[in-house]
Amino acid sequence: MNRRSFVAASLCGPWWGSEASAASRVQVGIMDGNLGFATDPEAVPHAAKLGFESVQVTLGRPVAGRLPLSDPALQAQWREAAKQHRIRLSATYIDALHVDCLKNNPQAYAWIEEGIRVTAALQSPILMLVFFGKCALNDAAEEQAIIEPLRRVSPVARRAGVVLAIENTISAAANIRILDAVKSPAVKVWYDIGNSTNVGGFDIAREIRELGRDRICEFHIKDKGWLGEGKVDVKGAARAIRDIGYTGTCTLETSAPSGDKLADAGKQLEVFRAALREAGIQSGSGDPLDIMKRFMKRSRRRDENLRAEGNSPCLVHSV
After folding, report:
1. 53-63 average pLDDT score
2. Contact predicate 59/69, CB 8 Å
3. Mind giving me the DSSP string for 246-304?
4. Residue 319 belongs to a domain
5. pLDDT value for 17
6. Is residue 121 part of a domain?
7. What CATH code is carried by the domain that includes residue 136?
8. How far apart are CA 90 and CA 171, in angstroms?
9. Would you state the pLDDT for residue 287?
10. Is the predicted pLDDT of residue 132 greater than 80, yes or no?
11. What is the 3-state secondary structure (H, E, C) of 18-30?
């Protein structure tokens, strides 16, 4: 797969979407930190052993002015682990934005640019941008404050083949206003069903349907404690995911109620997969590397046909 094809696939939708949609499937992954291995490629073999298809990579808090994952040697370790265990690095997470807020700190822009470079080097399609705690979007003025920075950085992401995913506690309607103002296919929503329930107090099934598959590029799945036993309507979320035709990745950000992160991650995975099955969604789709290769071949043929017709490939979404 060459970089040009990767860029086209990333901006036109998740590369696994076309392959998975025929079988109504989603991929289920987990954050490295929820396995106890934040920023550590040891997360990959553990995720594979538990039955996850992907891992979200934490880029780490800055050390000496650089993100830990900017180290080429560490990037190579992640890529090799992913290849060896046939695990996708579905996304990255720039946790420096918990300290330097995009709404009021120019340093956040620099971290995002560095995060884009790292995400591309990891051959991952999505960089998650967080807006929580002191960096939360608390009113319309703060929502407005992130629009111009996102407009400025989105072309950088697009050229790198990376989608910037905003994760926050604001409503679907507010997120739509931000996306409509930014006007970039390289900026989408990372929807967290736990945050939207327990912090935002929103009807997550309605919100998922309101945002739709063209605005949501990935999900976080979590609750306080065990999935299915708290306030989060996991089954309702699964039905909404089915209804919008989403075929990307759902990443667990679940807690470990027993204190055993690995064992509890496996149990949380079983609960979520049961909710998906009940909604008529299959999870997992065979060997992700083989799927990517087949999709990229079809994507190149599709793009050639679109160009021959005078159309832009990135006006057509594969999800």
Report:
1. 97
2. yes
3. --SEEEE----TTS-HHHHHHHHHHHHHHHHHHTT-EE--S-HHHHHHHHHHHHHHHHH
4. no
5. 39
6. yes
7. 3.20.20.150
8. 25
9. 47
10. yes
11. HHHHCCCEEEEEE
Question: Is 189's pLDDT higher than 90?
Answer: yes
Which range is least confidently modeled, 9-23, 213-227, 262-276? Answer: 9-23
What are φ and ψ of residue 205, in 5° steps?
-65, -45
- The neighbour count for residue 288, using CB atoms within 10 Å, is 21
> Which phi and psi angles does 87 have, rounded to 5°?
-120, 135
The answer to the question of residue 317 being in a domain is no
Q: Which amino acid is at 31?
A: M
How far apart CA 64 and CA 234 sit, in angstroms, is 41
How many residues belong to the chain? 319
Q: What is the pTM of this model?
A: 0.83
Q: Count Cβ atoms within 10 A of the Cβ of residue 59 and give its class: 0-12 exposed, 13-18 middle, 19 or more buried.
A: buried
Residue 185 Cα distances to 69, 158, 189, 299, angstroms: 25, 8, 11, 17
